[in-house]
Specification:
Blueprint lengths: L1 H39 L2 E2 L9 E2 L3 H7 L2 H33 L4 H11 L6 H12 L5 H6 L12 H16 L1 H12 L3 H9 L4 H29 L3 H6 L11 H10 L4 H25 L4
Antiparallel strand pairs: 1-2
Helix pairs in contact: 2-13, 3-7, 3-8, 3-10, 3-12, 4-8, 8-10, 10-13, 12-13
Length: 293
């Protein structure tokens, strides 16, 4: 009896032993920076100043809420999210439906081709698309000049954010495509057979079978894309540097400039926490929407 109890105790503690490497990495790279950033947001600390950090409470948060540049950057972020999320998820759904209709090895080939851009780092993709968009020697304008056109893709405040959205669509659509395609494969074939017997056409099957069955996966892709879009940084920083006229300077870029160029670490941390609150609210909304599923 004692040997059995000892064996069970060893099995129980061995599970915690295997968790130790992950818990150590989690504590060092996630938990400690998380709480350190929270404490940093409550102090005034000029990184290059000899003056030691001073506790100021909620002053950094109040300054952010009264900062016109903060709201301009947040508005640019919201514009990016509103344009990117429906386009990315909608395009991913259409592509996944098209790939699902393809049988055999060709489906795997096309799925790989759509997913390949997501493997490119943001630095490489950003430099590549900056070259595409450049007015003087860019690829797109070189082609348009053959018909007498020239479009200031990243030099016009009205077009710059749309150009960033187009680049983001190309770069990220492959991820939701794979997720939605996996969801389509999980829908039982019997549902389509029953609908076909009832005389349902392709559109009726899409509306009454595919979309209802795909709703949890579609909702997951939508919310994850929404959260990721709020954290956009690399595209705008590399392609436009936040210009022209700050039309593409998103909130994460403003946080970066505040903390690592102006060396106001406390104020940058406070804005980071405000962004975290936005992401947290979206995550809570996700759990509420998915509660029934």
């Amino acid at each position: 009896m004692r040997a059995s109890s000892t064996h069970q105790s060893i099995q129980r503690w061995s599970g915690y032993l295997f968790l130790c490497p992950y818990l150590a990495v989690f504590a060092v790279f996630l938990a400690l920076p998380f709480f350190y950033g929270l404490g940093l947001s409550l102090v005034q600390w000029e990184m290059l100043s000899e003056t030691p950090a001073k506790f100021v409470g909620m002053r950094n948060y109040r300054e952010a809420l009264g900062d016109a540049y903060f709201w301009k950057a947040l508005w640019a972020t919201v514009r990016f999210v509103v344009m990117t999320t429906p386009l990315t998820v909608g395009a991913a759904l259409l592509i996944a439906l098209g790939l699902h209709a393809i049988k055999g090895r060709r489906q795997g080939l096309y799925r790989t081709l759509y997913f390949l851009p997501t493997l490119i780092s943001i630095s490489v993709a950003g430099i590549l698309w900056r070259w595409f968009y450049t007015s003087e020697f860019g690829l797109f304008n070189a082609l348009l000049q053959k018909i007498g056109w020239s479009i200031p893709f990243i030099n016009d405040p009205k077009l710059a954010m749309k150009s960033i959205v187009a680049m983001t669509l190309w770069w990220t659509v492959g991820g939701p495509v794979v997720i939605l395609l996996a969801g389509l494969h999980q829908i039982p074939r019997q549902y389509y057979e029953a609908a076909e017997i009832d005389g349902a056409g392709p559109l009726a099957m899409l509306r009454h079978v595919t979309l209802p069955q795909l709703r949890p996966v579609l909702l997951f892709a939508l919310v994850m894309n929404l959260i990721g879009s709020f954290q956009v940084f690399g595209q705008t920083f590399i392609i436009t540097w936040g210009g022209p006229e700050l039309s593409t300077r998103v909130l994460v870029q403003y946080i970066y400039e505040t903390a690592f160029r102006n060396y106001r670490m406390g104020y940058g941390a406070a804005m980071s926490w405000l962004l975290f609150m936005v992401v947290l609210v979206l995550s809570i909304a996700q759990f509420r929407l998915m509660r029934e599923k």
